């Protein structure tokens, strides 16, 4: 993962913090874990992520590096007509507003292209119970 990709992923994860994005974690031992992102601390050596309800195959809760984390996101193409209408109500003319980005984050849409870059995984259809 390049420094530019790390920076992009870090910015995206921090913006999604209030919205309960679900992460997939594969560490260097190939242990897979899933959890809801609830925070992050940074050290000089590496970033450490903190999770809620973390389930790890190995049964061990350890810090994970940013390179080991992929959020589950929805492709923009999966937006329903109703969701598109709601999003359009947040725009100012044709431009997204801060409210637009908050709405996209709350509904777990990938507006930064993380899926195409391999930095995120496509969320299964009913992963997020959004009303």
Describe the structure.
The protein has 131 residues and is an alpha/beta fold. The chain has helices spanning 3-16, 81-89, 98-106; strands at residues 22-26, 32-42, 47-56, 69-75, 109-110, 121-122. The protein has a domain at 3-75 and 111-122: Roll (SH3 type barrels), CATH 2.30.30. The protein contains 3 helices and 6 strands. Mean pLDDT is 83; it is low at 55-60.
Offer a few descriptive terms.
131 residues; alpha/beta; SH3 type barrels; six-stranded mixed β-sheet; 3 helices; 6 strands
Which topology of the domain at 3-75 and 111-122 does CATH recognise? Answer: SH3 type barrels
Which structural class best describes the helix and strand composition?
alpha/beta
Low-confidence stretches: 55-60
Strand percentage: 25-35%
- Mean pLDDT value: 83
Whole-angstrom Rg:
15 Å
Q: How helical, in percent, are the residues?
A: 10-25%
State the end-to-end distance: 35 Å
Order of helices and strands: HEEEEHHEE
Architecture of the domain at 3-75 and 111-122, CATH level 2?
Answer: Roll
Q: Strand count, sense and closure of the main sheet?
A: 6 strands, mixed
Give the C-level CATH assignment of the domain at 3-75 and 111-122: Mainly Beta
User: Total number of helical segments?
Assistant: 3
Secondary structure: number of strands: 6
Gross geometry: globular
Topology readout:
Layout: H1 3-16, E1 22-26, E2 32-42, E3 47-56, E4 69-75, H2 81-89, H3 98-106, E5 109-110, E6 121-122
Parallel strand pairs: 4-5, 4-6
Antiparallel strand pairs: 1-2, 1-4, 2-3
């Amino acid at each position: 993962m390049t420094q530019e990709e790390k920076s992009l992923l870090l910015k995206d994860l921090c913006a999604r913090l209030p919205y309960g994005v679900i992460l997939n974690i594969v560490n260097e031992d190939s242990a897979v874990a899933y959890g809801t992102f609830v925070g992050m601390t940074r050290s000089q050596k590496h970033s450490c992520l903190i999770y809620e309800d973390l389930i790890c195959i190995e049964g061990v809760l350890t810090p994970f590096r940013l390179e080991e984390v992929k959020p589950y996101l929805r492709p923009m193409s999966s937006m329903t007509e109703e969701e598109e209408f709601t999003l359009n109500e947040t725009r100012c003319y044709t431009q997204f507003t801060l409210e637009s980005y908050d709405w996209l984050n709350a509904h777990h849409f990938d507006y930064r292209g993380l899926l195409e870059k391999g930095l995120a995984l496509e969320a299964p259809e009913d992963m997020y119970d959004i009303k």
